[in-house]
């Protein structure tokens, strides 16, 4: 079949909406090739294998990064690396989403896997902190790409009522690996000071193996669909009629490349000085820092002018923007902004203040991930039962605020383990309810062909929120900790204080009298960061009050009456915020009779 880009025509077999982007058309065609449930469960299992290995990587590598930067005497650069990673991820996420739509989901997996392997190979072989940082940047592109394609695939193959549960299910391996990763980390790190390198090298080998079944299944599905002639979009037609270069330029324009570069450059120039100023002579008064701030402000203004006046396909396109998506962005933006005020140096603070072993420390760090994943299952089940998300989200955010309040309470020299663990659990419960709710709401509010863009847009601004939080936290940490060390350790030499500042291992292993002063300095340093996090935690709750509350039925989204296969089941029932009517939908071979998606302003 020949087709061009997306339209709203319905000229394909079985009422399938024709002329969509290749990635969307191919995944919908898979449902018409593999109609039996065993094939669907096989795909779930393949995705599950990827998620399992990726979660094991996530639960272990974060601990290695803290120690890797410390091994170079540059622990404070953890903030700069995190900020740079976040900014780069924010910029590349829309590109990756466009690749997923313009080509296919498995091709995007391969793209992400390439950067992942390249990055971790560089980190494992690094001999200086610069190589380590660059390797982390490449690996982060791959990691974000894998996570994004996982989210897109789950959204592709699940109806709205199961969407929250689907996202929760792909998180369940994190629960198991939180316990497995602790002995793994301890086993690797116990081999010597540079043994963290093996922690990276192992996943360079393991992850490609985990990807093989999913890639084989998805490419086989594409081959069968092409053989049977059910793929509505033929990419070769575009290449023949317009050329490969024209097609690439078209997708670069569709992804708003210029806007993304302006936005990424602006945030890099505005945020990175906050993490690097203490490395430069003169600190904040350094001319380079001032120039970066000025050019960052200029680029931010240029981004606004470009988007409003010149861009043909702006990043915040009117086609997908709606109240629900915008509020989801606000909720997650402040969730990550406040979250990183607490999270970035929290594990470092715990390592110095408490006497945990490597294994105990790893398990404590993983408590947040375990809670998020476990409570995601609960929130996903609640959303499935209620077929609404707003009340679940509000309920969780109350506990989220309480968790940050308890964190502020724990800022003392010898906090109890029970109180610290409770902060992790409360925040993770609220975070699970909020994140699942925002994802479902954002995806329900757009058509299938716009879904990847909506996911990318939400991820873009939430990642930037995390970048801002990381940058401010780093600025506070690097400015306040040296002063606090000087205050509480007046008899220690400046050189020794510099060593303590640069390495959490040196800080923790200092002689008892010195360590007491170090702990007091750490407590003073985190106070303002955690209080700010508590204040910001209220914003997501307020924004959720104004969120629309779509009904979650068997359709793929709440604005068009199509199933996950792209098959039409009746005229759309979505309407204004106050509409309360529901139209019936026809049965199909792929779904039971469904209640049409609609939204309401009630909780």
From TrEMBL:
Ranges annotated as spanning the membrane: 41-65, 77-97, 109-126, 132-153, 165-185, 197-220, 258-277, 289-308, 320-343, 363-385, 392-409, 421-442, 454-477, 529-547
InterPro entries tied to this protein: MFS, MFS_dom, MFS_trans_sf
Subcellular location: Membrane
Record-linked SUPFAM superfamilies: MFS general substrate transporter (SSF103473)
Membrane topology per record: Multi-pass membrane protein
Region (Disordered): 570-603
Ranges for domain Major facilitator superfamily (MFS) profile: 43-551
GO-annotated cellular components: plasma membrane
Organism superkingdom: Eukaryota
Entry keyword set: Membrane, Transmembrane, Transmembrane helix
GO molecular function, one term: transmembrane transporter activity
Record-given protein name: Major facilitator superfamily domain-containing protein
Source species: Pterulicium gracile
């Amino acid at each position: 079949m020949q087709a061009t880009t997306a339209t709203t025509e319905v000229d394909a077999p079985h009422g399938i909406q024709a002329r969509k982007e290749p990635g969307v058309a191919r995944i919908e065609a898979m449902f018409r090739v593999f109609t039996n449930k065993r094939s669907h469960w096989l795909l779930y299992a393949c995705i599950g294998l990827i998620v399992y290995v990726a979660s094991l990587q996530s639960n272990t590598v974060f601990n290695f990064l803290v120690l890797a930067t410390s091994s170079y005497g540059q622990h404070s650069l953890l903030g700069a690396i995190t900020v740079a990673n976040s900014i780069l991820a924010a910029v590349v996420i829309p590109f990756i989403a466009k690749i997923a739509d313009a080509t296919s989901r498995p091709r995007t997996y391969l793209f992400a896997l390439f950067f992942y392997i390249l990055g971790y190979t560089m980190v494992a072989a690094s001999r200086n902190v610069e190589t380590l940082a660059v390797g982390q940047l490449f690996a982060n592109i791959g990691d974000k790409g894998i996570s994004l394609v996982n989210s897109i695939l789950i959204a592709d193959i699940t109806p709205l009522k199961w969407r929250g549960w689907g996202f929760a299910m792909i998180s369940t391996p994190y629960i198991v690996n939180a316990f497995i990763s602790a002995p793994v980390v301890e086993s690797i790190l116990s081999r010597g000071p540079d043994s963290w390198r093996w922690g990276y090298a192992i996943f360079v080998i393991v992850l490609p193996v985990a990807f093989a079944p999913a890639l084989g299944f998805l490419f086989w599905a594409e081959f069968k669909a092409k053989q049977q002639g059910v793929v509505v979009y033929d990419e070769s037609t575009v290449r023949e009629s317009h050329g490969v270069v024209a097609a690439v330029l078209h997708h670069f324009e569709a992804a708003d490349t210029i806007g993304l570069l302006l936005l990424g450059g602006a945030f890099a120039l505005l945020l990175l000085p906050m993490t690097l100023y203490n490395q430069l002579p003169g600190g904040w008064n350094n001319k380079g820092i001032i120039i970066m701030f000025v050019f960052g402000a200029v680029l931010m203004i240029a981004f606004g002018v470009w988007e409003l006046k010149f861009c043909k396909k702006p990043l915040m396109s009117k086609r997908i923007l709606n109240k629900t998506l915008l509020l989801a962005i606000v909720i997650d933006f402040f969730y990550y902004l406040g979250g990183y005020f607490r999270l970035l140096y929290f594990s470092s603070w715990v390592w110095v203040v408490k006497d945990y072993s490597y294994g105990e420390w790893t398990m404590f760090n993983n408590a947040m991930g375990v809670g998020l994943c476990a409570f995601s299952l609960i929130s996903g089940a609640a959303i499935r039962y209620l077929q609404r998300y707003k009340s679940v989200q509000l309920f969780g955010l109350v506990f989220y605020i309480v968790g940050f309040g308890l964190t502020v309470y724990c800022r003392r020299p010898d906090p109890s383990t029970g109180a610290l663990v409770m902060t992790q659990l409360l925040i993770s419960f609220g975070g699970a309810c909020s994140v699942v709710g925002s994802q479902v709401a954002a995806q329900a509010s757009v058509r299938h062909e716009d879904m990847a863009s909506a996911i990318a847009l939400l991820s873009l601004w939430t990642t930037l929120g995390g970048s801002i939080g990381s940058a401010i936290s780093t600025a506070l940490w690097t400015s306040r900790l040296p002063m606090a060390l000087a205050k509480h350790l007046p008899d220690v030499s400046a050189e020794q204080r510099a060593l303590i500042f640069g390495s959490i291992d040196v800080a923790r292993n200092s002689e008892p009298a010195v360590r007491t002063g170090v702990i007091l300095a750490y407590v003073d340093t985190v106070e303002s960061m955690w209080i700010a996090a508590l204040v910001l935690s209220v914003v997501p709750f307020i924004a959720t009050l104004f969120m629309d509350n779509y009904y979650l039925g068997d359709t793929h989204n709440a604005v068009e009456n199509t199933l996950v296969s792209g098959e039409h089941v009746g005229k759309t029932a979505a309407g204004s915020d106050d509409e309360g009517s529901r139209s019936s939908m026809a049965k199909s071979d792929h779904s039971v009779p469904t209640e049409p998606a609609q939204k309401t302003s009630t909780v």
